Amino acid sequence: MARLLEADPTRTPDQKTEIFRQLLQDARGDEEIRLALSGLANLGTAKSLELVKPYITRDAVKEEAAMSAAKIAAAVATTQPDLARQAVQQVLAASQNPAVRKQALEVIDALDKNQGFITAWQVAGPYAQAGKTAPDLFNLAFPPEAPRDTSA
Fold first, then answer.
1. From CA 77, how far away is CA 44, in angstroms rounded?
2. Model confidence at 88, in pLDDT bands (50, 70, 90)?
């Protein structure tokens, strides 16, 4: 189920995260937990990281959880730096795997280098209007800049 879910293009990351949450809850053994943790790693979202974190301290699956957490932390570091830092610090405290520790240290290094900088952007547009070229559109106000009609 976990492998099929990863490849499902019809579900959003949030939908997949919820299904993985249910898979973790219903897991009948450590191997099923490892498969779900691996799938969550590929989602790379803050919600998936929150699901993985409790497993970092669970001995039977901690290396898979640490690997997943380090991978997700790298993906969310620009948008959720505090969450990413907290997760990789947990990874470093729990994991003895040199590759996982290296990845966690790389996340911390990137976080330290980018501290104080804007690393996540929000973009709006593109805006168009029939019969207008880009220079014509330059001085036009589009929502949310356009004044709203408040008479209604």
1. 10
2. very high
Identify the CA nearest to 107 among candidates 88, 122, 128: 88
Amino acid residing at 143: P
Q: Determine the Cα–Cα distance for residues 128 and 122; give it in Å rounded to an integer.
A: 19
Predicted structure pTM score = 0.76
Residue 50 to residues 18, 35, 41, 113: CA-CA distances in angstroms?
Answer: 12, 16, 11, 24
Question: In this structure, what token pair is assigned to residue 112?
Answer: 């330290």
Query: Would you give the DSSP letter of residue 147?
Result: P
* Nearest CA among 52, 54, 37, 43 for reference residue 15: 43
Q: Which of 13, 63, 57 is nearest to 38 (CA)?
A: 63
CB 61 within 8 A of CB 55: yes
